[in-house]
Structures are given as structure tokens and as C-alpha cells.
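Quick entry between incubations.
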Amino acid sequence: MQIYLPIAEVSVNIFLLLGLGGLVGLLSGLFGVGGGFIITPLLFFIGIPPTVAVATGANQVVASSVSGVLAQFRRKAVDVPMGIVLQVGGILGSGLGIVLFNWLTRLGQVDLAVQLAYVVFLGGIGALMLQESIRALRRANRPGAVRPRDQSRKLVHRLPFKMRFRTSGLYISVIPPFLVGMTVGVLAAVMGVGGGFIMVPAMIYLLGMPTKVVIGTSLFQILIVSAFTTLMHAITNQSVDVILALLLIVGGVVGAQIGTRLGAQLKAEQLRILLALLVLAVALKLGLDLVLPPSEFYSLQTGRAR
Amino acid sequence: MILRALLLLILMTLPAQAERVVAGISADNIGITAAFDGSSVLIFGAVKRDAPEPEGQLGVIVTLEGPPQKVTVRRKTREMGIWVNSDKMVISSVPSFYAVASSAPLDRILSPETDAKEHISVPVAVEAYAGPLGRSDGRPFAEALLRLRETSGAYSVSERAVTLAADTLFRADFDLPANLIEGEYTARMYLLREGKVIDQTYAPIKVQRIGLERFTYALSREQPLIYGLMSLSLAIFAGWAAAAAFRMIRNS
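Done. Structure below.
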């Protein structure tokens, strides 16, 4: 059954979209990520224009993070002041990202920029995660090994504008969380992702936040930033396709529940290795597309006739 | 006397107009709904004659043309090891859709002179819009445009797709793709003999979004803020509803 998407101006199979949403929901339930990094490339792949894919991806992230953040709030696992500092940076970053995105669209380099960002960030994070989880697996087999101490935490303590974050039990400068938030905001706007896969490691390793509040605070920040991004894309590019978003969300909700059940049957280390491999596979595929000669050297971009 | 002279004059000019084309269209209004999955248009007609059929092969050509668009053609080249869009050509107005159907191979019923005058074949029709594409640096871009659009089915030629019965009745079926652009489409019908046009007519077809599609699209263009807030509320509500529903399932 086909459905005509009013903004993307293409007709797509309704079950394909529900399936894509379901797949992403499955991943987010299984690994605790938003899944934006996988939905946007998949939407490119089925022929949704890049601008629509990125903007609609952000809208889908809003839905998936709402249900997550509500559960985290009930567990009191959200550091609200930290979230607000991250958000101030995030909204600034998102605004910058939109300007950058629109400029790249005019230059005709948006596909390249999005692909490069994916290759660099997914490749980097995937490699780090794989290395870390393999080390964790070894450590689990060899008790008594010492956890390496992080050096960057010292820098965080030397910067000015210190603030107390009670839930996280931290007394640090607001500059690092502000910068982390801003980076994620730019990425959210350009890549159509929530940025959880960057935010979570940055909070643990750069800010030294306790793991139990990381997921909730990251979801809280991602929710606000992706909501802002969606709105900005809707206003400046008019590229949010609400019908597309709705279908992805419906599929995603169901997938997330299946993912959560599946996830409960696997070990945390195994899950992280699987996620790392998945992230690396996406990065590798996109990287090869950039390096290998394309099958078609020309591309068309249409606009309104003058 | 004057009347007779006038009649004679008309009769003398008539041979060129001895055959006329009368045409109809299956739908002059196509609505794009949410369930839109392409559409087909039937264009049919008859040849009206006041005199016996003249010599030479009769040809019928039907074209269907979509609303114009601005198209930017980009070319990738290898820069520092990766493939990047490096050159472009902007064509300010070119048909978004163009299909030609004919009763016989085009080169047998259409002379190049007539084609140049009436802009019938695909490259000639596109060039009529875009201006000369044959500039030394623009040629590969223009060829790429035609090739990509032919591959995607936006531009097509179907020779012998017009069925001609007893040199009098004809019909042509066009399949419109699922990714149709809104706007005014034009169907043109040509009656040809020995490469020259004897008669022609055209008919407009309006393609527009209707119902929910129209509402959504119009809202996104005219009230982007409200549209954005609506998309957000839907997403937030869906997220909340999902969390609430699954909590209920788990608790029960």
C-alpha cells in the first residue's frame, strides 16, 4: 500500500516506513540510543530528499525521547540544571547548525557534509565503543584490574564559572557542558540526529557525570534540542513531513518495546559490542560511497521555476 | 456573386485544412490524495474529414507536458580522494514531466523542420524551454539532465503508443508517475502528413493535491510556525501516549 508524502513529494510503501520506524525503535529499545543516526541514512536510501529526511528525523527523535525521558524523570535520574546548561549550548548550536545546513544546501554540498559528518563521528565513536567494550569484557574475566583514570577531568576543574550540580554530585565550570551541548546541537541540525551517541560518552568521560544520571539527562537535553531543530527546519526550510514522521513514530513505538524485551536477555557488554559493530558498519558503508567512483556522476536538484 | 467568390476562396484554402483533429481526455483534473500511486490518462480523438483522404501516411503525435521547474545539474569529481559535487549548471525553466507518444517512429512522420518549429521530440522540447543547451561547456550537463530524466521516467518517448484505427480514430495512454508535481499539465495533439503538421489542438490537465495532502502542504508553506508546532505536538503526544500505554500493559 503506497502513501504519497505531501512534503517529500514521493509515494512510498506504508509498510516500508512502518518497518523502518520499527527497526529504529528496536535499536533504541535494545541499545538506549535515539536511532537518528540510522534513520536518516535509511531515509536517503529509500529516496526521501536529504532536507526532508534530516528535518523529519529530528521530529521522530522528539517522539522517541519523550517516552524515554518520562520514565527517567520518575526514576529521578535527570539532572535538570545540567540539562539546562547543555540546552543553552544546544539551542545555540542548533541555530548555528541550521544556518550551516542552509548554506551547504545552497552550495550543493549538503549530501557530502552530512555523509562526512556521519563517517567521521560514527567511525570514531564506533571504534572507541568497540575498543572499550572489548576491554570491559576482558576486565570482567580478569578481576582486580585497575580502571584507567581520566586526565581531562582536571581541566574541567580549572575553568571559571563554576556551578554545583546536585543530582550529578559535581562542582564544575559551566563552559565544558555548554560546549558539549553546542557541538551536539550543530550535529543535530546537520545530521538529523539526537546526538545521544556523542552526548553519552562526552558526559561520562569529559564531564565525569555518574552513569545513572547520564541517560536521563542526555534524553532531556536531546528532547529540547531536537524539538527546537524540528521547529527551525519547519520554519526556514519547510521540510518537516508530518505524515512521514507519524508513520516512523508508530513503527518506532512498537519496535522499542520489542527491543527492550530482547535487550533484557542479553549482557550489557555483548549489547555494546553489537552497537559498536552496527555503528561501524553504517560508517563504513557511507565512507565507501564517498571514496568509490559513483555509478552516476551527475545529480539533479529541482526548485520552483522563476 | 461576392458570396460565391468568398466560398471559392474558402475552398481554395481548404486543402490544408481538409483534415481536422477532434480530441478528448479521460480526466482534466487529477487529484493527489494520500493514497496516490500514479495515475493514467487516456487521450483519444478522431480525424474529421470534409474530403476524401489525401495521399501519404497519416501520423498522430500526442505529447503530455508537466509544469516547468528550475533544475540545478551537478557533477561530481574526485577531490582529495573523495567524490564531491564540483561543477553545476542551473536551468531556470524546464518541464518536470514530458512524454511523447506517436503512431509510428518519429523520424518517419515528423520532419526535423517541423520538430524545430513545434518542439515535439524530447530534446527539442526541453531546449525550447531551457534555451540552447548546446554551449560547449553546458552540453554534458544537458545530456545528463535528459539521461537522468529518461531513466527516472520523467521524460519518455513511446513510438507506436498511439493506436490509429482506420486512419480516423486514435487513442494514447499515458502513465503518470507516483512522484507527480502539482500544476498545469498540457496535452498536445498533432495530425501529420509527410512530416508536416496538418492540424493540432491542445487540452489542459490540472494536477493538484486534495484533502489531507492539500491541507498539510498549504499549512507547511503558509503557516510554517503553526505547522512546526503541530508536528512537535503530534510527536510529543505520540511519545507520551506510547509510554503511558506500555506502562499500563506492564502494570496489568
